[in-house]
């Protein structure tokens, strides 16, 4: 098998007046995966910096194969049930479906007669269990109370913050496999169909889209949800200045996963208290808000092992608003795993925690993100060709504001 010749590095020179491609380059900063070079360092006192970048080709999505479905029957509490589930689904999905039919949560479910021996772990594909249509089994378990529940709890999504994270930009082949996974594609279609968006401020023609996580990205969630600090003290420093700086170029979507039985009412109250919505005089507007019901669970590899986590699939937004797509969307988040299905659009920043501490109050992350986002809005026609993984290097090479 032959090997491809790597494209020649493209050099971007940034001076005090503008950012432009050096003569001889055919595009500015395409897919800036920075090659190891002494030129990538910005030396103190220099008037200009040179960033060497290598263009990577992004593989296209494959045409998905037709899914195969399994018809199952089960008995619970003397009642007969039928369900259809895809071979690409996981044991996790079967448990979620059983919960939706019986209110028996996964931790209380005992499934008898579906397979020989112990039921495989959640990440196991049902197609690998070699089940035949018409298979019968018994479910044993006590249902939970019929109190008001957040609908998204049926998928028992993980916490919004923990130390388990995955860098999907580091393995393009694995990322492509996740994007082509039949189950994930079906979940996108299902969530796109049920998505209902309340437009807070009209979308503007010709603007790019900023999808902005809220939890530990633009505010410290823990003291906000507990009430330990006033909302304005939970905000990341420079929040309003950041939004005002990028608003001329981007419409803004807030995507949060704060658990709450009345999530939108609660979030709206907090956004008003933060001064992001309402009568506070700001030079920006929030266009719409999504919550964790628009997310679903996927299964990723981390250190050779599978684990499940929720994901923010931008295609759900793009299906609803066709003016937005991979070429004009940036997703800013503190969790790289949220980029699982759109790694090229993800811009990861460190989590903002301990808002009351002096080092947190001196945080300048949002100022740096604003400089980078304004730069690419002014210089890049197609965001899908950019690797945001190296955004810090690009931002450091920009001339002072």
Automatic annotation (TrEMBL):
Domain spans labelled Ubiquitin-like: 77-146
Keyword Metal-binding: yes
Molecular function GO terms recorded: metal ion binding; protein serine/threonine phosphatase activity
Subcellular location as annotated: Nucleus
A Pfam family of this chain: NIF
Reaction(s) catalysed (UniProt annotation): O-phospho-L-threonyl-[protein] + H2O = L-threonyl-[protein] + phosphate; O-phospho-L-seryl-[protein] + H2O = L-seryl-[protein] + phosphate
Cofactor field: Mg(2+)
Start and end residues of each stretch annotated as Disordered: 1-46
Domain FCP1 homology: 203-376
Example GO BP: regulation of proteasome assembly
Keyword field: Hydrolase, Magnesium, Metal-binding, Nucleus, Protein phosphatase
The keyword Hydrolase is annotated on this UniProt entry: yes
CDD domains: Ubl_UBLCP1 (cd01813)
Enzyme Commission numbers on file: 3.1.3.16
Main location: nucleus
Top EC class for this record: hydrolase
NCBIfam families cross-referenced by the UniProt entry: HAD_IIID1
Name by which UniProt lists this protein: protein-serine/threonine phosphatase
Organism listed in the record: Postia placenta MAD-698-R-SB12
């Amino acid at each position: 098998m032959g090997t491809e010749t790597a494209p020649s590095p493209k050099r971007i020179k940034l001076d005090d007046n503008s950012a432009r491609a050096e003569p001889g380059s055919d595009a500015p900063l395409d897919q800036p995966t920075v090659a190891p070079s002494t030129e990538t360092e910005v030396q103190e006192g220099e008037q200009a910096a040179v960033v060497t970048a290598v263009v990577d080709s992004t593989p296209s999505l494959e045409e998905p194969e037709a899914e195969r479905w399994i018809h199952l029957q089960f008995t619970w509490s003397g009642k007969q049930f039928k369900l259809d589930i895809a071979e690409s689904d996981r044991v996790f999905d079967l448990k979620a479906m059983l919960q939706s039919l019986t209110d028996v949560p996964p931790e209380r479910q005992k499934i008898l007669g579906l397979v020989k021996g112990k039921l495989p772990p959640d990440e196991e594909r049902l197609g690998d269990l070699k089940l035949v249509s018409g298979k019968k089994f018994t479910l044993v378990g006590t249902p939970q109370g019929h109190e008001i529940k957040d609908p998204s709890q049926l998928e028992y999504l993980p916490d919004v913050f923990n130390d388990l994270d995955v860098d999907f930009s580091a393995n393009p082949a694995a990322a492509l496999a996740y994007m082509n996974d039949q189950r994930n594609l079906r979940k996108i279609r299902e969530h796109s169909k049920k998505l209902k968006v309340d437009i807070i401020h009209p979308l503007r023609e010709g603007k790019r889209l900023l999808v902005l996580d809220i939890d530990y990205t633009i505010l410290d969630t823990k003291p906000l949800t507990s009430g330990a600090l006033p909302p304005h003290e939970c905000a990341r420093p420079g929040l309003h200045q950041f939004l005002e700086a990028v608003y001329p170029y981007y419409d803004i979507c807030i995507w949060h996963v704060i658990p709450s039985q009345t999530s939108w009412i609660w979030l709206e109250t907090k956004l008003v208290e933060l001064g992001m919505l309402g009568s506070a005089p700001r030079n920006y507007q929030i266009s719409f808000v999504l919550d964790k019901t628009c997310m679903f669970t996927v299964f990723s590899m981390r250190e050779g092992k599978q684990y499940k986590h929720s994901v923010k699939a931008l295609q759900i937004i793009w299906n609803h608003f066709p003016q937005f797509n991979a070429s004009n969307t940036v997703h800013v988040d503190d969790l790289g795993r949220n980029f699982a299905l759109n790694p090229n659009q993800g811009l990861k920043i460190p989590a903002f925690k301990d808002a009351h501490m002096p080092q947190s109050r001196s945080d300048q992350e949002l100022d740096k993100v604003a400089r980078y986002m304004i730069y690419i809005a002014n210089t890049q026609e197609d965001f899908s060709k950019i690797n945001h993984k190296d955004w810090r290097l690009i931002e450091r090479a920009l001339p002072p504001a």
